[in-house]
Specification:
InterPro entries: PhoU, PhoU-like_sf, PhoU_dom
Main location: cytoplasm
Number of helices: 7
Number of domains: 1
Function: Plays a role in the regulation of phosphate uptake.
Order of helices and strands: HHHHHHH
Strand content: under 5%
Subunit structure: Homodimer.
CATH architecture: Up-down Bundle
Subcellular location: Cytoplasm
Distance between the termini: 41 Å
């Protein structure tokens, strides 16, 4: 019975990893779709979000069944509850990738992004994908140090987001209001995607240590430790 129980716990973790990999791929493909005005690729990302939703529902059902049957306590209870919260982060990440793809579809056959912002949007998309890949690795390895690094990596996304706004506020902006709205939305989608990746990693920190990531980072470092 206990072996089956721990296999079920493991399967929940495997589901989270699959969700993280799917949404990481989705944000990368959505970025290509928005930059290349690729309608077929955009439609693929939009349709693919259904699988992420299915995985979340399956994971929730397994977790709730586990709570009802086994009534886990202490560490095992923390695993189940934290996994449910991570699945919500990952589902929202999938929605954000879908939003990027939907914007590409909305503006097709035109390109939603002005050429002078292509490099910034590409970098944001690549960074978002790397952050989620790292979050997936954290789920697998339970590496607290790696998890804490994501907060620092997210600073780069914040910097890129500010770069977008600098373009929008520049007196030389010549791409109109509609494009300004599109760029503003995209910046927000990528920023929130990165935040969810960080949130997943932070939840793993709590799962392993019982402490929140900000508490660990704020704790004084002991020399020679």
């Amino acid at each position: 019975m206990r072996d089956a129980y721990h296999e079920e716990l493991d399967s929940i973790g495997e589901g989270l990893v699959e969700m993280a990999r799917l949404v990481g791929s989705a944000i990368g493909r959505a970025t290509t779709a928005i930059l290349d005005s690729d309608l077929k690729l955009a439609e693929s990302v939009i349709a693919g979000d259904e699988r992420v939703d299915e995985l979340q529902h399956e994971l929730e059902a397994r977790a709730i069944a586990l709570l009802a049957r086994q009534q886990p306590v202490a560490t095992d209870l923390r695993i189940v509850v934290t996994s449910l919260r991570m699945s919500a982060d990952l589902e929202r990440s999938g929605d954000l990738a879908q939003h990027v793809a939907k914007l590409a579809r909305l503006r097709f056959p035109e390109r939603a992004i002005p050429h002078d912002l292509h490099a910034t949007i590409l970098e944001m998309g690549q960074l978002a994908q790397r952050l989620m890949a790292k979050a997936a690795e954290v789920i697998i390895t339970k590496d607290v140090d790696l998890a804490l690094q994501l907060e620092q990596d997210d600073d780069a996304m914040d910097l890129l987001h500010r770069t977008l706004f600098q373009h929008l506020l520049d007196d030389r902006w010549k791409h109109g209001i509609e494009t300004a709205v599109d760029v503003t939305l995209l910046g927000r989608y990528y920023e929130r995607f990165a935040d969810h990746a960080v949130s997943v990693a932070n939840r793993v920190v709590y799962l392993v240590t019982g402490e929140h990531a900000d508490e660990i980072q704020a704790a004084p470092q002991v020399e020679g430790a």
